[in-house]
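lol forgot to send this yesterday, sorry. struct tokens for the thing we talked abt
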């Protein structure tokens, strides 16, 4: 029975934000791959099938989930789908593209989690795997047979690879008018940069992210793959919109997602700050480039720093009076508005840090909280693992892996683990036999 549009909307809404983020955590780590190395992902609703295919000696992933997902294909290294959403053990899973024998390259990035790679453990729980080799005509035929039922296909093959395999939207819609095809690439399907290789850091650079990130002396990338995540979020939201549109028209459509365009949209504030040829925001390290005081400030007795943010003149006056103990600072001609405070930030920072030097970080935070001034601890990763708010809200769960239980986080928006299907991090090729049986396919086929 075909689902109603209301049912599809309900499924879509219940896909938690973590799906969109983790799905594309590496969506374009290697978007531009060699012609002979191609990947394909399919998501089928209502039975909901997600299939990933990698050409060559690579393993391909197919799985059954009850959710609407976007997945990523990471060049020659890895492919994953995050699917924590679901109601039972047969629904809601991730797919990882693995290499025969050795598995995904990401398994060997490090050994930080009970001998397993940290990146792999993060992205690869809730998984089942299945292999196809698209150089084999038989396997390509199987894939196209499954595509007859597919609702959504997401791919980031090398430019033109999908067309050569007969997997473009133009070709697929001839036998499946409702299919939605989302093509993800570094720079889009046409234009002078169409064939240019695209990795996350390279796109950050092209989109101007590095020009506003880092210190005055040196630009810096972000600590996570933000261009990949941006592309994934726009792929995700466009797919949901396409599903709603299809509910009205019965027709699928093609979605063309560019990492550059996604990142450029997220860069709109600094672009508008540089409107009409004006200079852009200066790199200011961990401080805000245009609002001050807004950034880290050293404390004294324990050597730690506290992040503090003042957003308006009322808060500035309160900070001066109740935290810094000098109400006259609020009317000091050097600091009477944000523009002047930002311009004279070095002088102001010395004043603030001199006061904070008499206190520990905890004491500074206590005074800021009492005064109603926004602040945060400068946590490292151990600080996040031990964060009292995450503990109080019971966000930590146990996740099974081939090396035993490890701690993981509930997806954002989920209140209880019973609301989702959190499955194990798999061993290489663990589910091949079961998935063949699930779709009525034999090894011979």
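and heres what i got for the seq, position by position
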């Amino acid at each position: 029975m075909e689902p109603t549009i209301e049912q599809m909307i309900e499924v879509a809404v219940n896909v938690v934000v973590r799906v969109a983020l983790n799905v594309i955590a590496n969506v374009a780590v290697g978007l531009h791959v060699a012609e002979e190395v191609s990947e394909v992902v399919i998501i089928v609703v209502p039975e909901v099938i997600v299939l990933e295919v990698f050409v060559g000696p690579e393993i391909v992933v197919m799985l059954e989930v009850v959710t609407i997902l976007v997945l990523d294909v990471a060049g020659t290294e890895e492919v994953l789908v995050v699917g924590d959403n679901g109601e039972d053990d047969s629904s809601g899973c991730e797919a990882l593209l693995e290499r025969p024998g050795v598995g995904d390259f990401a398994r060997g990035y490090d050994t930080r989690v009970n001998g397993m790679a940290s990146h792999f453990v993060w992205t690869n729980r809730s998984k089942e795997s299945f292999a196809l080799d698209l150089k084999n005509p038989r396997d390509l035929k199987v894939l196209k047979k499954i595509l007859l039922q597919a609702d959504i296909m997401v791919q980031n093959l090398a430019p033109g690879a999908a067309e050569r395999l007969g997997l473009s939207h133009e070709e697929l819609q001839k036998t499946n008018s409702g299919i939605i095809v989302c093509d993800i690439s570094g720079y889009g399907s046409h234009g002078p940069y169409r064939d240019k290789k695209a990795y996350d850091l390279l796109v950050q650079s092209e989109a101007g992210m590095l020009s506003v990130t880092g210190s005055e002396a040196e630009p810096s990338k972000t600590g996570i793959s933000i261009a990949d995540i941006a592309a994934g979020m726009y792929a995700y939201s466009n797919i949901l919109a396409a599903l709603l549109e299809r509910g009205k028209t019965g027709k699928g459509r093609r979605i063309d997602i560019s990492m550059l365009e996604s990142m450029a949209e997220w860069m709109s504030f600094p672009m508008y700050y540089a409107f009409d040829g004006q200079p852009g925001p200066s790199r200011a390290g961990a401080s805000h480039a245009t609002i001050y005081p807004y950034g880290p400030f050293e404390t004294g007795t324990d050597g730690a720093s506290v992040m503090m943010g003042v957003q308006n003149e009322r808060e500035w006056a309160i900070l001066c009076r109740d935290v810094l103990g000098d109400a006259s600072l609020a009317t000091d001609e050097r600091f009477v508005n944000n523009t002047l405070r930002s311009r004279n930030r070095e002088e102001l920072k010395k004043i603030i840090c001199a006061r904070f030097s008499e206190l520990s970080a905890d004491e500074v935070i206590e005074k800021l909280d009492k005064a109603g001034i926004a602040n945060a601890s400068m946590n490292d990763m151990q600080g996040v693992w031990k964060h009292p708010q995450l503990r109080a809200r019971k966000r930590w769960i146990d996740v099974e892996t081939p090396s035993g239980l490890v701690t993981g986080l509930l997806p954002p928006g989920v209140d209880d683990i019973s609301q989702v299907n959190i499955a194990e991090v798999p061993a290489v090729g663990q589910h091949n036999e079961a998935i063949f049986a699930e779709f009525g396919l034999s090894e011979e086929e």
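The mean pLDDT is 77. anyway ping me if u want another try
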